[in-house]
Amino acid sequence: MDSTPSPSSSSAFDLVSRALGRYIPQGGAAAAESRGDRAARRQVPDQPAAGGQEQILGAVNLDRDLIITRCNLEAPVFAGLEVGAGRPFVDLLPRGDVPTVTRRLRQVVESGEAHVARIQRLRRGDGSELVVSMSILPSAAPEGGLTVSLIAMARRLHLYAAETAIGTSLDIGETAQSLAESLLAWGDVAAVDLDFAVWTGEGVSGRAQGRIRLRRAALVPDRVWPEGYTTPGDDLPGDASRLLAQAVLRDDAPQTIVIPDGEAVERVFGSPRVARALVPADLSAGVVCIPLVLDSAPPVVLGVAEVWRRADCPFRDSELFDLQELVARTAHHVDLARRHQREHTQVLALQRRLLPRAGGDTIEIASVYQPATPDSAGVGGDWVNSFPLPDGRTALVVGDVVGHGLGAAATMGQLSMEARALLSAGLAPDQVLEHLDETVTVLDDAESGLAAGYSALGSTCCIALYDPVGHHVTLSSAGHLPPILVSPDGRAGPLSIRPHPGLGAEFALREPFDVYTVGVPPGSVLALYTDGLVEDPALSIDEGMGRLADAVATVHPWDTLQQAARHVVSDLAPAPQRDDVTLLLARMIGYRKGDTATWRLAARDDAPARAREQVSALLRQWRTRDDTRNNATLLVSELVTNAVRFATGPITVRLIRSGHGLLCEVGDTGNGRPRLRRADLLDDGGRGLSIVHRLTTRWGVRWTDTGKVVWAEVAR
Fold this sequence. Notes:
Layout: H1 12-23, H2 29-34, H3 39-42, E1 57-62, E2 68-72, H4 98-111, E3 115-123, E4 129-138, E5 146-152, H5 155-166, H6 172-183, E6 189-195, H7 196-200, E7 214-220, H8 238-248, E8 257-259, H9 262-269, H10 272-278, E9 285-294, E10 300-310, H11 317-354, E11 363-370, E12 380-388, E13 394-404, H12 405-424, H13 429-444, E14 460-467, E15 472-478, E16 484-486, E17 492-494, E18 516-519, E19 525-529, H14 541-553, H15 561-572, E20 581-588, E21 596-601, H16 607-621, H17 626-646, E22 651-657, E23 661-668, H18 688-695, E24 698-703, E25 708-715
């Protein structure tokens, strides 16, 4: 239906006026004015108009210069509005609303398109305000002006609109702000103060009244406040918190209190410091304090809502009932936001705990975790981790667990810790993913614990192991997006990885996890991330990864990696953000050639002697201490001896000099795992690993495609 009336039709003003004529009762405000009782218009009645029907409709006609030409505001609810022909319409508006409303009026004049149902405040002659729903309609030709229809926000309409608006967010601050904005219809200033435990998500039941700590959550209108006045984010002074707590909890029951005027305010608050913190302007104002109460046994007070207005406009009983009803209806929204905040904080703390702490001598690491917006479904299951392996390599792990909330967090923590344990035990990336795949399947059958009723099937994970000696990365992926590699010459792009169904796929769909080895010269940058960083409704996933590759390629070798990671996330993260964003950047440094040495020996009886000779000569060249050199020489001799006795094929000896010790590695083609045991007094063997154990700070085994590597670290 066209919003612009045709020339032959009646004007919008006439249509609204005729409708008003059918509903305004005889003997109403118009009759009172004709009797000269002008004072009747200055009093807004506490009860509906005669006939039992509350009148809330009005209309004003404007010319193209926004000057009033006709008006029909005879309903009692509009009493006190100083309106008449020849006056600018903006005289009815609060000063701060004039620019916005003027712009809307002129838009309708120029475009001819109606502007329907906007909440607006009108200013009465005594300075008080009236909340209305305002629609702007273009008048029919040849008038070419406007008709502004006004619907006073009657009690039921306003309560319904307020309750609907307050429940739209799970963020505590936004919920409190919506409540304060709704309360402003009854006063000049509205504030919401919440128990500090609500902010942290803690329970607030059973708290001692004298220990309550209130923090201002919302304050309207937005203006410059005097020094010392409590604004959002500030804690109320201790005396003020105790005062409000004692006021609303009189006789151990939450009650609404009214302080009618400045003298009473001054008498109740007593302290000038408390008055400066709570009174918005001067002591001539009155206030009503309504507790936010959860309907429980015993009742739980979450905070206090305050509505202030001038003392010459006292609160009527009907208004107090309205205020209590609105706060009572919406207190549970504050509690829902509190519970969401508690879960959000717990999950966020777990994810922060999993973030990488730092790199090492051979690799520089930076990570950014940016949780989803607070009013989303909750913190997701994105996780990223990096940690040095005992054999000198570094593990880089990123995963994305399906879903949100505590179930996803519990699964995320379990998978992260399991991956770290298995990698530290020497398993290859594909073997670790096989274990994680089985774990996800088992968790899907769990019926108890935090993950009860939650399914992680379809979660993804990517594991990359950086070898600082060979300057390569070995990686395997379970359905995760491919990492981005930036070479030292600036070329960037995603690694070519064959897609995989992910963790916990149906048995018939399960495929072996492929292993890829990629060369990463010193100076290369590897980026691991989750889909929240590259998914954009306006772009394909390939375009999103391309944007990420371009952004990471701009990271200069001299740039601080952590700062560069933040810039990448701020440039690419979508807004609003409905999924967690995780990015891990790793700059490869590696070992210098002079810090490593490798020898290949035949598996013969003279191999231990040859190994001792070469290791001893190298350590003299490195100017290693005598005790360290002797321990390392004996250690390598024992490991090579075991390789000759229990394995076949060539033996590889590698020595790595790091900042904290010497790393000795002996590789062979055997698949047996060396085990430390106590040798009997008459046994001929079994003491080699005991010697290794006593000479080293740590030792272990890792498996390769051709056999195994036994490594051990000696303190320098």
